[in-house]
Write a structure and sequence with these properties.
Layout: H1 32-38, E1 45-49, H2 60-70, E2 75-79, E3 98-102, H3 108-112, H4 138-149, E4 155-158, H5 159-163, E5 169-171, E6 176-178, H6 181-185, E7 189-191, H7 196-207, E8 221-225, E9 233-236, E10 275-278, H8 279-282, E11 292-295, H9 299-302, H10 306-318, E12 327-332, E13 335-339, H11 348-355, H12 373-378, E14 381-383, E15 385-386, H13 397-401, E16 406-407, H14 410-423, E17 430-431, E18 433-435, H15 449-454, H16 474-484, E19 491-492, H17 500-503, H18 507-516, E20 521-527, H19 531-537, H20 542-558, E21 564-571, H21 578-590, E22 599-600, H22 608-615, H23 636-646, H24 654-663, H25 685-688, H26 716-735
Parallel strand pairs: 1-2, 1-3, 3-4, 4-7, 9-10, 9-11, 11-12, 14-18, 17-19, 20-21, 21-22
Antiparallel strand pairs: 5-6, 7-8, 8-13, 12-13, 15-16
Length: 754
């Protein structure tokens, strides 16, 4: 086990609250009748969630509810309440400590709308998959209803929706920068990331009589202040127009009402003066990180200046390492949003303790036989780790779970398999997944505590794998072998995304995976083929994909299996031009991939790619008004065309692609033949029905002397097709039967993310 630079109080070391005498509930109660059956007169904490209540460790409300129960608290659940009035929010009575509010396992807006802003008809976290059972911006709505129901009860917000909106953030759905959700929800405190440490600390402190106003320095929390705390040094984040006139004392981004000086909190007149250092003048000065915070440009500034927004996003991500991150502050009008440093990651025994809690592993009985699609997908899957150090700019995992990998022990994982065997109705012996955000980052972390304590890199694997990163997959390989050896287990699948640039560093792992844990298809995510776009995603080049594919094919052949890779790709990502998408489409056709469902870039709150989308700047580098610009396709028509390039084989996209290719000067890719991307229009079929022989020296298709993409003709599949066609022609000539040549055999259609 790697020793961490910073430590935290052990999760299960707190004295139990007096209500632990009630013991463990079969299910956390959702009605007063269930509370009565347990002998409760009240709940200490009530969790309000946008998901149906499934008592399973893949559902956040169950994890935090069971964890609080293990600490001795009585926890009730209000699942998918009717938000149009306060009735449902009062059904369990007044909680003794607080309401805990979450939108659920998914952001409510991403859950409800597609990347093209079309309303989804279903919701995987609702009985029968029915859509519309939670409001848009559920955290805000639920929190306000809790306040209406019981004005004097504190409200704590958390989960991924709140976590990704802890400061001012660009909102794709309204196309504007919105305030911190802590302001709009009127909640009292926000917990971000995996919130076990913060929730336990806050709950115990409140149980001892402290108010939330007194809990100002708990890691993983965000609060509202009237002014910065005294005794701190303020680092003013770098001015984007530096060098220039240095403002005296105050940040150029700070909102200061006219005629008022805010160096002190009016309510705390005895605080020490704040020392303010503009970041460019800080140089090598050593400061105590525990008494230092970074001032971000105010909401009023970032909402009007996209360049400042990109700069703010960069600062937030640079301050994400829990071992060296400093507090952040951002003014919203007359209030200050104060973001404490991220929580210290859980150690393996703590992770084991969280997942070993007495989950029923099934939906609450009140749903009877109603199917909950999300539960069906994960009921026999096991989460073996948390976090991701990949740093993909379009992904929000890092902003929520962090870059430090938190792993469970083999023993805990194997015990969970036994629990599944005992509790999951109709279990057939198939474990559907051993994974997490990335299936093969289990136990991988920095080899050097001191390096990790000072590192501010946005990714451990881009542009190359860090020399300090442990890439030994043997603990994962050993885990796979142990799970297969359990009596009653006949199949263990790996369904979580695979980081293939890490996998190729351990061929034995790839052999184990391909031989025993791939059911014919394995999903991986190159995301794009072009280096310019990949650099904005922080993803490896296609050379690494080719290396992995060779290993995959080799070990599949050795195992006597016909298996295929399913590559995922994204259209309309920041940095992606139509030329890039054309090149990717050519790559897909050359490799005979026909994606069925494809993904268009979805600007989720707080991600670096979303900052690129909104600002047109690259926050992977220092941001100024003259720094690198990033082109992003935003027009709905252009996004549709880029998505169409991924589905070049779909007739519904052909006319748009023809028009685009003509505008790009690439009409040479329109027509009939293997060196064409899309067929000619219907009226041209008579012209192109019979192929014309090329004259000696005449080139066909795109010029090979240019840099234009061409459809390669010398692949093994193409040679085999030609051989088949030639044999069929000779056979037809001999028999004079007129039988058509046999059709070229195609690989299975490739399915991608929605």
């Amino acid at each position: 086990m790697i020793k961490r630079h910073k430590t935290a109080k052990q999760l299960f070391s707190y004295p139990l609250y007096w209500a632990e005498c009630y013991g463990v509930s079969p299910f956390l109660p959702t009605t007063r009748e269930e509370m009565d059956a347990l002998g409760w007169d009240s709940c200490d904490v009530i969790i309000v969630s946008g998901d149906a209540y499934v008592d399973h460790p893949s559902f956040g409300m169950a994890v935090l509810g069971r964890l609080l129960e293990a600490q001795g608290y009585r926890v009730g659940i209000i699942d998918q309440p009717d938000w149009r009035n306060t009735d449902d929010f009062m059904r369990l009575g007044r909680p003794n400590l607080y309401f805990g509010v979450t939108a659920g396992n998914m952001d409510s807006l991403i859950n409800r709308y597609t990347a093209d802003l079309k309303v989804r008809n279903d919701d995987a976290y609702t009985p029968y998959g029915v859509g519309g059972k939670r409001p848009d911006r559920a955290v805000i709505v639920y929190s306000q209803r809790c306040k209406e129901a019981f004005q004097d009860v504190p409200v704590m917000i958390g989960g991924i929706e709140a976590s990704l909106r802890r400061i001012a953030q660009y909102d794709y759905w309204s196309d504007e920068v919105r305030r911190s959700v802590l302001i709009d929800s009127t909640a009292d405190i926000l917990l971000y990331g995996n919130a076990e440490r913060a929730m336990i600390e806050v709950t115990h402190q409140m149980a001892m009589g402290k108010t939330l106003d007194e809990l100002t320095d708990i890691r993983g929390t965000t609060i509202v202040r009237n002014a910065p705390p005294g005794g701190f040094t303020e680092i003013d984040s770098t001015r984007v127009d530096w060098p220039g006139k240095v403002d005296q004392i105050y940040s150029p981004y700070e909102y200061i009402p006219e005629g008022k000086c805010q160096t002190k909190d009016e309510e705390e007149s005895d605080v020490m003066p704040i020392r303010v250092i503009p970041a460019p003048l800080r140089r090598g000065e050593k400061l105590d990180p525990e008494k230092t915070y970074i001032r971000l440009p105010s909401f009023e500034k970032v909402s009007k200046d996209p360049v400042l927004y990109a700069h703010t996003s960069r600062i937030l991500h640079l301050e994400s390492n829990p071992h060296n991150a400093r507090a952040l502050i951002q003014k919203h009008g007359k209030k200050e949003i104060w973001v404490n440093p991220p929580p210290i990651p859980l150690e393996t025994p703590e992770m084991d303790g969280v997942f070993d809690l007495p989950y029923a592993r099934v939906p609450h009985p009140k749903y009877k036989k109603a199917r909950i699609p999300a539960y069906d997908m994960i009921k026999t899957s096991i989460n073996i780790m948390r976090g991701c150090f990949g740093g993909c700019t379009f992904c929000s995992i890092t902003e929520h779970e962090g870059r430090v990998i938190q792993s469970r022990s083999h023993e805990s994982i194997l015990n969970e398999i036994e629990d599944i065997k005992a509790k999951v109705p109709g279990f057939t012996g198939h474990i559907s997944d051993l994974g997490g955000p990335t299936s093969n980052m289990y136990t991988l972390n920095c080899n050097d505590d001191e390096v990790q304590a000072s590192c501010r890199k946005l990714s451990c694997v881009y542009p190359t794998i860090c020399s300090n990163l442990n890439t030994d997959h043997s603990p994962t390989t050993e885990l796979y072998r142990k799970t297969r050896a359990i009596e009653g287990i006949h199949t263990v699948s790996i369904a979580s995304g695979l980081r293939y640039d890490l996998a190729v560093e351990d061929p034995e792992y790839v052999r184990e995976l391909v031989t025993h844990h791939v059911g014919g298809l394995l999903k991986i995510a190159p995301e794009h083929s072009e280096q310019g776009t990949l650099s904005k995603m922080m993803k490896p080049g296609m050379g690494t994909y080719d290396r992995f594919k060779r290993m995959f094919d080799k070990y599949s052949k050795e195992a006597g299996k016909k298996q295929h890779l399913i590559p995922y790709f994204i259209a309309a990502h920041p940095g992606s031009s139509d030329e890039d998408m054309l090149n990717l489409a050519v790559w897909l056709k050359t490799h005979d991939f026909k994606p069925d469902q494809v993904q268009t870039f979805y600007p989720s709150p707080m991600s670096l790619a979303t900052a690129m989308y909104h600002s047109g700047k690259n926050p992977l580098k220092p941001v100024t008004y003259k720094s690198e610009d990033v082109y992003t396709p935003k027009d709905a028509k252009q996004r549709t065309v880029q998505k169409g390039f991924l589905r070049y084989h779909d007739a519904s996209n052909w006319q748009d692609l023809r028009n685009t290719l003509i505008k790009m000067g690439r009409a040479d890719l329109i027509g009939h033949g293997d060196n064409k991307l899309v067929p000619a229009e219907e009226k041209d079929k008579q012209i192109h029905r019979r192929p014309q022989k090329a004259k000696p020296g005449q080139a066909t298709g795109a010029s090979h002397s240019s840099n234009r993409p061409t459809l390669e003709k010398n692949t093994a599949a193409e040679k085999a097709r030609r051989k088949t066609n030639n044999e069929a022609k000779h056979s037809a000539g001999r028999s004079n039967s007129g039988t058509a040549p046999s059709a070229k055999r195609r690989k299975p259609k490739v399915k991608s993310r929605q």
